[in-house]
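ERR on first pass: missing label on line 2. Operator R.T. fixed the label and resubmitted. Corrected input:
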Amino acid sequence: MSNRLVRSIGKQTSPLTSETLNQEGFDKLLAWLDPDRDKAGEKYSQIQFRLIKIFACQGCCEPEDLADETLDVVIRKIDWLIENYEGDPASYFFGVAKKKHLEQRRKKPVPNLPPPEPPPEEIDHASECLDNCLEKLTAEDRKLAVRYHEESKGAKIRLRKQLAAELGVSINALRIRVHHLHSDLRECVDSCMRKILPSETIS
Amino acid sequence: MALNNRDQERIRRYLLGQLDDEEQQKIEDRLMLENDLFEELEISKDEIIGEYYAGELTAKERDWLEQHFLASPEGKSRRRFALALKQSKPKHLQSVTRVERIRNWLPDLWRSQPWAVVASAAVVLIVAGIVLRVTIGTSQSTSGKFLALTLTNSSGTRGQDTGPTAKVSLPANVDELRITLVLPAPSPLASSYRVEAVDGINTLSIAGSNSNSVSVTIPAAQLRRGQYALRLFAIKTDGTEERIPGNYFFTVE
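pass 2 clean. output:
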C-alpha cells in the first residue's frame, strides 16, 4: 500500500506522515507545480482527481492507490524534473500513471466476469437514502433529477428537448445541470450509505 | 474551449473501449489538461450507465463497460445510484406527474381540442350568468320581504298610554316590519335616536332618521299577536338622552 498524501479532493493538500516520502520532496513538487503554494495544492488535487477518474474508466480497481504510487515516482524524480522537464506537469503525471497501470494489469489482469450486481438490500438502503436526498432539492430540480433518464431512444430525446424547453436552456446546458444534480445526489447517497452500513458490506 | 460533437462522440467511444491506442492516448492526454473535455467525460459516464440499464448498449459495449468502468469503485457507486434512482423513480414520478397533469391539462387540451376549450368556456360563462341572475333575483326578493308602517306619536292625544294604534297583519313570508316613527316636533339638538319597546321585543334597530321621522326595523319573528308600544329617545350632542314624549302604538293581528 502506497503512502496516501492526499485522501480526497477539496481537502487541504498536505503530506501525511511518510516513511518513503519526505517533506522536502513534496515541497519541491508543489513548487514545481506552481510558485504559489495554494495554487500548487489545487493543481496537485486536480491532477490526482483526474488520474483517479481516468483510471476508473480503464477498470482500475484501486485508482486512488495508483494515483499515490504515481506521486511516489514523481517525487523521486522531482530534482531531475525541475531541471529538465518541459510541458504541463499533469501530462508527466499521467505518463507515469499509465505505466503503473500497465504494470498492474500485467500482474493482475482484468477479470472477464462482470462485477456482481449490488445486493437488493444495498439498493433498498440506497433508495431510502436517495429519497431523503431528493427531498432536499427544489421541486424543479427533483423533477429534473428523476425524469432525465425516464425514457429510452426516441422518446428520451423528445423528453430531454421538452425538459430543456421548459427550463429555457439548451440540451447541453440541461446535460450539465443534470450531471451536477446527479453528482450531488450521488455524494449525498454515498455519505448516507456510509452512515447506514459499515464500508466493508458495501459492494 | 468549447466542445464539439466529435469530442462528445470520442468521449463516448473512449468509455466504451472503441478507440484505437493512438486515439485513446490523445484523449487521455487532453483529459488531463482540458476542463471541458473532462466534464464531458463525467457527464457521459452518467448517460452511458443510463443506457446500460435501459438495455440500449450492444453486447460488446456492455461487456466492455462491465469489465472496465463498472468494475471500478466509482463505477460501483454510480451503478448503485442508478439502481436506487430506478427504484425510487416511480414514487417520485407519480407525485411529479400528478402535479404536472393538473398544470398541463388546460394547455394540452387547448393544443389538442381547442373547440372543446371554447365550448367549455362558453358553458361555464352561461352557467355563471344564470347563477348570478338567480342569486341577484333572490336577494332582491328577500330584501323586498318587509312590511312598512308609519306611526304617529301619542303625545298629542289625551291619554298618552293609549294613543292611536295602527293595526298590522304580518303575512308568513314577511321578514321584518319597517316602522317610520313620525316625530311630534323637530328635535334640533338630537344627533341620533334610540328606540325601545315597552315589552315583548328584544331586537329592534334604527335604520335611519331625518328631522321629521325615525325609521325602525323589527324582525317579524319577534312579533306575536298583540299590542306593542315603542318609546323614542333623542341623543344630544353632549351624549345625554331626552325622551321624546308619548309612545308609538301598534297591534299585530
